[in-house]
Amino acid sequence: MQTTIDNYLINYKVFGDKNKKDILILHGWGQSAKDWEKVAIRLGQKYRIFVPDLLGFGSFKKGEINYSFEDYLSFVSSLIKKFKLKNYILIGHSFGGKIAIAHTSKNNSAVSKLILISPSGIEERGIFTRLKIILIKMFKFLPWTNAFKGVTYLYSYDYKTAGKLLPTFKRVAPIKVDKEAKKISSDTLIIWPERDEQVNLKWSKKLKRLIPGSELRVLWKANHSPHITDPDRLLRIIDEYL
User: Fold this and answer.
1) Most CB contacts within 10 A, which of 35, 51, 58, 110?
2) Which residue has the higher pLDDT, 188 or 3?
């Protein structure tokens, strides 16, 4: 399905009927609504599920794109108004989780339950990470030499695959949402895959401390995108919580 949000023509998917409680799912960086179909179809048996393509992903035409984090927050707010969602459940994965944290911090009364799956935005830069950044800055101005090729592996997977969204990635990736997490009063479940290769499991305990009264569930032996690789076990946790 298609609609216009903030003057953008977007694709979105809806599962379930209008007489059921609403769930809004925000996908992660580099993914789209399609990646959530397996989970959304099953959840749609009990709820009405909305899964939009976020700015720049899925159905969006890939021009030279440079969105800010505030653009994503505005987009989500406009989408909620468009769909007339009230007292909704919000699910955010990875970058979508970062957006969900920031959104909920300003809309606790509207979000009845919040489910965060490996959200970004709470990581701390350790010594090794800071060293990587220094090396990248040192080499990026040099000609395309073997030495430069040797440090390209230091870039994150999302950085290397951002394509025309790279300007956006550079703007939104450094955004931290620690302060916003502390302001969340909505009932919150944190789900973290044990073998998350993009957002390390060690940050799960920090997030649990930041969000008062939140519950943490570790999805053992799962990777960063359990909605794709392990939907059955992910759904079991979500069903138990809801």
Assistant:
1) 51
2) 188
